[in-house]
Amino acid sequence: MSHDHHDEDHDRGLFHDLETINQRVVARRRALAFLASAGTAGFVAACGDGGSSSSGGTSSSSSSTSSSSTSSSSSSSSSSSSSSGSCVADPTETNGPYPADGTNTSSGATSNVLTTSGVVRSDIRSSFISSTTTAVGVLLTLKLKLVNTNASCAAISGAAIYIWHCDAYGRYSLYSSGVTTESYLRGVQVTDSNGEVTFTTIYPACYSGRWPHIHFEVFTGGLVSASTGRTATLISQMAMPAATNVAVFNGDSRYSASISNYSAISLSSDNVFSDNTSAQLAQQTPSLSGSVSAGYSGTNTIGIAV
Description:
The chain has 6 helices and 12 strands. It is α+β, with helices and mostly antiparallel strands.
């Protein structure tokens, strides 16, 4: 597939970025160790909190947010600060036929955006490989929180989360007819000290045979381990909330094809979500607020047992 050759058109690549990041992490740790030895533990704690908060907001983020959160990542994850309430481990789900994570092919070639420079970003609405086309649709700002179900829902920092989903017309970039040269609605973020990442995207459509959803993969080893879906700690999907589905599909003409598709599907008939428990489904469904005209924002918790 032609898009596999476009890496040369960008900078020196994700692995160069990772090497730079690791060098900064080492330098930072040495500085923190020096400060701690000087009896300035309170100052060290403050620096640690400030250095990893860039992706924790709920407002729409730009590519600069991606750069800030990337620089705070490390090659391994850790658990910190318990969250309130309860959590359950998200079930493993299929990554489907359109992951672009190195586990399958598109147009006869292996498709893997995880090794492509530019994939680490907060705003995933635009293509980033050979095109800058922006996917149109109802705005969605989604904050994800990664927690450890074996440690009282403690936040997991330093993990990479890759998400992808279809556009307003039910098409997947890199695979579907008409958008094989696009790479939009795909991106990776690294969880901050609160275990959080924020993605700015559009609301996914409902295509025939599936409940509206967003795919994701979690790599607790951080960016270094996020080279293929085969190394993911968890592969799963989020189920979009029913009330918001109805509002979006009936309120925006770009989603007109979703109306009939949505009327023919339910969570109990969906081949991915139908066998999940009510607790799992509750956690797999983002909590959203907003409107079709202003866009939606909200949160979702991802639970893993580590």
